[in-house]
Amino acid sequence: MAFIRFLISPFYKISTVLQAAILMIIACLVLSAMAGLIRFMADTGMHTFEIVFLRNLAGLLYFLPWFFRNGLGVLKTKRIGAYCLRSFVGFFSMVSWFYAISVLPLADAVALNFTAPIFGTILAVFVLKEMVGIRRTLAMLVGFSGAMIILRPGFTELSLGAYAAIFSALTMAFAVMMVKLLSRTERPAAIVAWTQILILPMSLIPAIFVWEMPTTEQIIAILMIGFLATLGHLCFTKAYALADATVVMPFDFFRLIFSALIGFIFFMQQPDIFTYIGAAVIFASSIYIAIREAKKSKAEREVLARTKAETRIGPT
User: In terms of residue numbers, what domain contains 217?
Assistant: First the structure.
């Protein structure tokens, strides 16, 4: 442990913004490698339902030390209904995402996944009753035009994998919204742990009907997927904790770069130019939405701070 602390000590001496950028790039690399392993598992013949179940089982195993150290009391909550809804949506998001990875080029799946922030804005309008101005509306339309550049309906046949990737982005946006609501009262580690616990029986039921005993090679790959998923999400969460979303989010584009490289090197995948153009358009609109969200949140915090200050001072 002392040697590891010695190796990473220079990391803590740099600015928090640079720390966040490095962590985000690491998260992109790790999550891209995880997607590559999922594709490998699918190519070995394992069904998506079984991969989803084993991935959640492996992910839960990495939480056991946390349970032993803190006890099961850390899972105490009064919001089990919200946890169940978040896990239910998360299960469908995971199934559709794993399926998309198994049938699409990795870069195509990731490019379509960039539409999640756009769906998040739409959900905020209908679920949270937020007001969206003309600029964010135009940004959403631009983002969807990027998706159309990738899909090119009318010019190429739309595959089930493409629909799965878009559905995954939609359900992921809903799951992220639920995490934001839960994080107002719940600990981040508890949110992740509850999600793993609740998705496990959900994923077991369909996995039973397609179950085949994993080989030693597949078990090793599953353990690596669980580890990479845990590490990637920890880096991702820490990056957003260290810096504003407007600073961190642009580095998420590295997911496309890493996924394209992994797809080319290990699976001989060569995405066409439309994938990169469409991804750039989607990503640019997502960045703009993130900037508008950050400005809105800052303005709301300033108004709240002024209101509290005026309340303390009282009428003059």
Answer: 20-119+153-271
Could you tell me how far CA 94 lies from the centroid of its own chain? 10
Write the DSSP string, 16-57: HHHHHHHHHHHHHHHHHHHHHHHHHHHHTT--HHHHHHHHHH
In DSSP terms, 156 is beta-bridged to 153
Residue 271: helix, strand or coil by DSSP?
coil
Identify the band that residue 46 occupies on the pLDDT scale cut at 50, 70 and 90.
very high
Q: What is the pLDDT of residues 143-165, one digit of tens each?
A: 888 888 888 775 566 789 999 99
Q: Provide mean pLDDT across the span 29-49.
A: 95
Report if residue 276 sits inside a domain: no
pTM over 0.85: no
In total, how many domains does the chain have?
1
279 within some domain: no
User: Which has more confidence, 234 or 26?
Assistant: 26
d(CA 53, CA 212) in angstroms, rounded, equals: 12
Residues in the chain: 316
More confident residue, 134 or 82: 82
The answer to whether residue 1 sits within a structural domain is no
Residue type, 46: M
- Is residue 200 in some structural domain? yes
Confidence (pLDDT) at 10: 67
Which residue type sits at 86? Answer: R
Q: How many other C-beta atoms can be found within 10 angstroms of the C-beta atom of residue 292? A: 17
Residues facing residue 210 across a β-bridge: none
170: amino acid identity, one letter:
L
Which candidate, 58, 56, 57, 49, places its Cα nearest to that of 95?
A: 49
| Cβ neighbours, 10 Å, residue 311 | 8
